[in-house]
Amino acid sequence: MKILVINCGSSSLKYQLIDMDGEKLMAKGLVERIGIEGSKVKHETIGKDKEVIEQPLKDHKDALKIVMESIVNKNYGALSSLDEIGAVGHRVVHGGEDFAESVVITEEVMKAIEANVEVAPLHNPPNIMGIEAVSALLPNVKQVAVFDTAFHQTMPAKNYIYAIPYEEYESYKIRRYGFHGTSHKYVTQRAAEILGKSVDEINLITCHLGNGASITTVKGGKSYDTTMGFTPLEGLPMGTRSGNIDPAIVTFLMSKKNISAEEVDKIINKESGVLGISGVSSDFRDIEEAADSGNERAKLALDVYETSVAKFVASYMSHFDSLESIDGIVFTAGLGENSPETREHVCEKLKAFGIEIDKAENKIRGEEKIISTSNSKIKVMVIPTNEELMIARDTELLVK
């Protein structure tokens, strides 16, 4: 069975076409900067030259149309017809308490995904657009939703209950859900393989760092605590999201600016984060370039971000009995995999814990490697995530 995996992020779309007979990758691609100036599609069919398509892409519907056209392109495509696709798996960010595992998409499932838009306003809408676009192009193909929240269902109540009246949890299911679960699960399994341990014995702190970012404590191969919460807004500052702020700021802005809840929600979800601090961009590459050119606000944005990452990693070390019981710290996702500077700056702030980076080994982008020195008390690893393979496996299982 050939499975197309669609992974829609807030400003990006990754895709892979996988032949599940041997889990062979047939084609892959990345659509970058959706809704941002400089949109482009990088498509690669295995065994053929890479193709880069540069054109404006106003939304995820535009992006998916280009993806489908690339897959069946006579010169650089992987298939002669879209009819060869047996199933489509989608990364869906928020399943609330409705879904603790992946499901075949039905009308009822779509209603539940739509109901969770209010708690994942940047992600569930593009996820829904992806599903609807595929439905129009491949109306007879089954689709599967794989939820970011599923991996974190193992968190104990002490780590997911908020200190608000318990009745609000009972009535509205307000609690920490966590996100990027498919990515955290994948790198956990790979780290166990790399270190020669069984998954149920591995203890890690996994750092999914990109335009969206989260950090997870993994104890015995299972999620124990994570930075994102009721929505993907909590935790680290991100591309356009504020991350943790004093909750009183919300009502203060509403009062001072005479704006609605929807308007302040737009500010903290779409106008904050490193974009809000730097005034440059939500893309870390743009910010790094501006910082290198002397832009002080860009430098500040990076420092705020890296300091926040280090703070969470340091606090999550308290979940373990000792430093010796932590098998490793993992960096993954766009920034975690491709920014040696970010990894180095974060780890420098963790020197007090005996963490030591080998600067030569750290000079990598998108490669799987242990980058800590032999003297480091905790191993530090870079593991490129593969959410798509995890999604394809769930999709095949459910469709069959």
From TrEMBL:
One of its GO terms (biological process) is acetyl-CoA biosynthetic process. Keywords: ATP-binding, Cytoplasm, Kinase, Magnesium, Metal-binding, Nucleotide-binding, Transferase. Pathway: Metabolic intermediate biosynthesis; acetyl-CoA biosynthesis; acetyl-CoA from acetate: step 1/2. Mg(2+). Can also accept Mn(2+). The record marks 180, 241 as: Transition state stabilizer. GO terms for molecular function: acetate kinase activity; ATP binding; magnesium ion binding. InterPro entries: Ac/propionate_kinase, Aliphatic_acid_kin_short-chain, Aliphatic_acid_kinase_CS, ATPase_NBD. PROSITE patterns: ACETATE_KINASE_1, ACETATE_KINASE_2. Substrate binds at residue 91. It comes from the Bacteria. It catalyses: acetate + ATP = acetyl phosphate + ADP. The active site is at residue 148. One of its GO terms (cellular component) is cytoplasm. It is found in: Cytoplasm. Its main location: cytoplasm. Its EC number is 2.7.2.1. ATP binds at residues 14, 208-212, 283-285, 334-338. Its cofactor is Mg(2+); Mn(2+). Mg(2+) binds at residues 7, 387. Belongs to the acetokinase family. HAMAP family: Acetate_kinase. Homodimer. Catalyzes the formation of acetyl phosphate from acetate and ATP. Can also catalyze the reverse reaction. This is Acetate kinase. It comes from Peptoniphilus indolicus ATCC 29427.
